[in-house]
Amino acid sequence: MKSSSLPFRLGVAAAALAMMALPALAQTAPAPVPNKGDTAWMLVSTALVLFMTIPGLALFYGGLVRTKNMLSVLTQVFAIVCIVSLIWVTYGYSLAFTNGGALNDYIGGFSKAFLAGITPESVAATFSNGVYIPEFTYVAFQMTFACITPALIVGAFAERVKFSALILFTVLWVTFIYLPIAHMVWYWGGPDSLAGPAKALAEAAAPAKAAAQAELDKAVADAGIIFQWGALDFAGGTVVHINAGIAGLVGCYVIGKRIGYGKELMAPHSLTLTMVGAAMLWVGWFGFNAGSNLEANGVAALALINTFVAAAAAGVAWLFAEWAVKGKPSLLGMVSGVVAGLVAVTPASGWGGPMGCIILGLVAGAVCFLFCTIVKNAIGYDDSLDVFGIHCVGGIIGALGTGILVNTALGGVGAPDYITKPGYLSVATYDIGAQMLAQVKAVGLTLVWSGVGSFILFKIADAILGLRVSPDKEREGLDIAEHGERSYNY
C-alpha cells in the first residue's frame, strides 16, 4: 500500500509545483514576433538604398567627370561599398548601435562585434511600442547608410586623389567620424525601454517617486547625446549629408585644386549617364527615407510622398533660378536641384507635411544653386562635383527646416512623446525655441566633429601614402594611371 501510494504522492507534488509555477510563467512576456509586412518593406528598402549607391551614385558622379577619370570614380564608389560592408559587420554596427558604457553619449561598445549574439530570432525596435523587425534586417539597412556616406565624399576631390590613400581615409573616416555621429544621432533603447519606467513612475507612491524617476532618467539617458538633446533627423541629414559634405569641403582644400582648374574646360563627359544616375538616386531615396520609418505604415507613406514632392520642387527651383541667371535651363541644373531637394527633405521626410516639404525643396533648390555657382566661384575652392554645395548646405537647410516643419500647426506630425502615456506614442507640445536649439546644436556638433576630424584623418592618410597622384598621372587620367583600364575602348 505504501509503495503503491508513492507514485501518487509524487504526481500530486509535481502537479502542485506546476501550479505554483503558473504565475511565474504568466508574467514572462512572449518574445516579440516581427510583422511580415514590416520585414518585407525593410528588405526592399535595404535593396533600394544599395541601388542608390551602386549603380546610382557611381553613374551620377561618373558622368560628371572627364572621360579619362570615369572608371576611377566607379571603382572608388564600388570599393567603398565593399570595404565598408565588412567594417560594418565586424565592428561598425556594434559601435553605432550598442551601449558604450561611460562613453555612451558619443559611441557604442563591442558587445555585438562580429554580430555576436545576433540570430534570425533577434529583433530590433522600431518607433512604435511593441513593434519590432528582425535585427539582421536592421543591420543590413543601416549598413547601406554606412556605405553611401563615405562614397558621397569622393565627389569633392574627384580626378586627383590616390586610390590607396582614399581607401585608408575611408577606413579611418568610417571608424572615427561616421560611427560616432550615427551613434550620437540615432542610438536609443527603443520605445518599450521607456514604457516600463514611465509607467512605474506614474503609478509610484510618493516615497518611491524619486527612485522611479531615477530609473526613467537612466532609460532616457541610454541614447546618443544628440538624440538626448531632442534633435530630429528622420533619415540622415546630419549623419549622412552634413557629415559627408563638410568632409568633402575639407578634402578638396587639403588635396588642392585640379591641374588647370579655372583655366581649362572640365565639362562632364556624359550628362546622359549623370541623368540616369540621378534618376536611380531618386528611386532609391524612397527606400532611404520611407524605409527609415522601419515600419510599413502611414508615416512611411508620408515620408515617401515628401521625398517625391520636395525633390520635384527643388528641381524646379534650380531650373528656373539658373534660367534667370544664365539665360538657359540646363539638364545638369535640374538633376542637381532634384538631388539637393532629396538631401534637404531627408531629415524632415517623416516629420513634416507635404506642403511644408515643397517649400523646403524650393528653398533648397535655390540656395544650393547659389552655393554651387556664385559662392563657389567667389571663394574659388575646387569641389569637383559640388558635394559641399549640395550635401552639406542642403543638409543644413533640411536639418534646421525639420525643427519648423515638425510643428502640427504647419502640417507636421509633431515630435514624439513616449513618456506622458506609457506604452503609447503621443505628440509632444511643440516649443519652437527648444526644438530649433536642438537642431542647431546637432548641426554644429556634426560640422565640428566631421570637419576637424576629417582634416586630421586626411593629414594622416597624406603622411602615410600621399593623398594626391603625381601631375603626370593626373594629366594622363586616373583610369589608366591608377587602374590600368579605360572606361571606353573605341
Index terms:
Ammonium transporter fold; 4 strands; 490 residues; disordered N terminus; 17 helices; two-stranded antiparallel sheet; mainly alpha
Overview of the molecule:
The structure is a single chain. With 490 residues, this protein is mainly alpha-helical. It has a single domain (37-188, 223-483), classed as Ammonium transporter AmtB like domains (Ammonium transporter fold), CATH 1.10.3430.10. It contains 17 helices and four strands. β3 and β4 (426-427) form a beta hairpin. The radius of gyration is 26 Å and the shape is globular.
Short description:
The protein is an all-alpha fold and 490 residues long. It is 67% helix and 2% strand.
State the CATH architecture.
Orthogonal Bundle
CATH topology: Ammonium transporter fold
Based on helices, strands and strand pairing, what is the structural class?
A: mainly alpha
CATH superfamily: Ammonium transporter AmtB like domains
> Low-confidence segments, ≥5 residues, pLDDT <50?
1-27
Please give the share of residues in helix: 55-70%
Order of SSEs: HHHEEHHHHHHHHHHHEEHHH
By CATH reckoning, the class would read Mainly Alpha
For the sheet with most strands, the description reads: 2 strands, antiparallel
What is the overall shape? globular
Strand order of the largest sheet: 1-2
- Which band does the percent of strand residues land in? under 5%
Amino-to-carboxy terminus distance? 102 Å
Q: What count of structural domains?
A: 1
Write the layout of secondary structure elements.
Blueprint: H1 2-27, H2 36-64, H3 70-97, E1 123-125, E2 132-134, H4 135-153, H5 163-186, H6 191-203, H7 209-221, H8 225-229, H9 237-255, H10 271-290, H11 298-326, H12 331-345, H13 354-379, H14 387-405, E3 416-417, E4 426-427, H15 432-464, H16 471-476, H17 478-483
Antiparallel strand pairs: 1-2, 3-4
